[in-house]
Amino acid sequence: MIAAVGLVVGVVVGVLLHPEVPVALQPYLPIAVVAALDAVFGGLRAVLDGIFDDRVFVVSFASNAVVAALIVYLGDQLGVGSQLSTGVVVVLGVRIFSNVAAIRRHLFNA
Amino acid sequence: MSAGEPRANPWRRLWRAAGPRATRGQLLAGVLCAALGFGVVVQVRQTNVSGLADLRESDLVRILDDTTDRGDRLAGEVQDLETTRRELTEGSDQAQAAAAAASARAQQYGVLAGTLPAHGPGVVATVTDPSGALRSTNFIQLVQELRDSGAEAIQIGSTRVVAQTAFTDGSGGVLVDGRLERSPYVVSVIGDPSTLATAMDIPGGVRETLRSAGADLAVARAPGEDGVRVTALHAVSAPQYARPASPRP
């Protein structure tokens, strides 16, 4: 519940403040957001599996976002930034899909 | 989960997890979800407003290449269109000049062929023949003399004299192109007035011939631009056999 409230609060704050993203962060924010989404769905699945642990959630959330951004940053430095960010998005997308599939099986038995 | 578990179980578990409890985990999850929502909104806005600023170097290079290619294509198109425009304007100029030249030529030919009225300096010769002694040969001589002295348009009575004009003897006058003209014959001639008038007075010429035949010739000079008006027209029939031929190379 608090998580949902937090999500809404974040959206509202973002809408009200509409801050500028620093230029240096601009290539990495979308990847970090996708990675965080993956962490959130993973957490939801853990709740349904009954193995949710707040420490694991926080660490996975932060590490997902940071590692994804780091990978893309490294790719930019190596000159394969766009390909590597595509790869990261594909991997995270697959993980999100599998997490959502597990959640669906829990909730709907289907 | 096993197959025998009741179906409501995961929902209950979800509901229990969603229950507002001020545990540290719930608060952290809330904060992180707030960060996620914030990040999503910011990124969505950024994507909507972003121009080229947040693109990678390789993307920028690709866009620059695309833009350069497009610019080159458009420049080529501009060149083609300008060439077409130049051709069209020049073509219309040439067509206009050709039309003007053709119309001027048509007017010259019209005057020569007798299909257009003409005016200009010249003489009006009046031949009076009270006894009706003149023959067609006298008029042929008169016209011949006028042409020799540079007449450009000739009209006898109400008939235009052109290359094909025929003179025939008629009763009480002379048939000019089949039309009967009677004395006094008014001959309107456009040309140099003094040359024409002098030509009439050549010894042994037209005037003497007419006088010996019993007729009289009076020549009035009209030197002005509007001096003589030749208004009779010659009806040109399309040639039945002759066709225009292009000159041999």
Automatic annotation (TrEMBL), chain A:
Its main location: membrane. It is found in: Cell membrane. The chain crosses the membrane at residues 27-44, 56-74, 80-98. The keyword Signal does not apply. It is a multi-pass membrane protein. It comes from the Bacteria. Keywords: Cell membrane, Membrane, Transmembrane, Transmembrane helix. The keyword Transmembrane helix applies. One of its GO terms (cellular component) is plasma membrane. It holds the Pfam family DUF1290. Belongs to the sbp family. This is Small basic protein.
TrEMBL record, chain B:
Belongs to the UPF0749 family. Pfam families: DUF881 (PF05949). It comes from the Bacteria. One of its GO terms (cellular component) is plasma membrane. This is Uncharacterized protein YlxW (UPF0749 family).
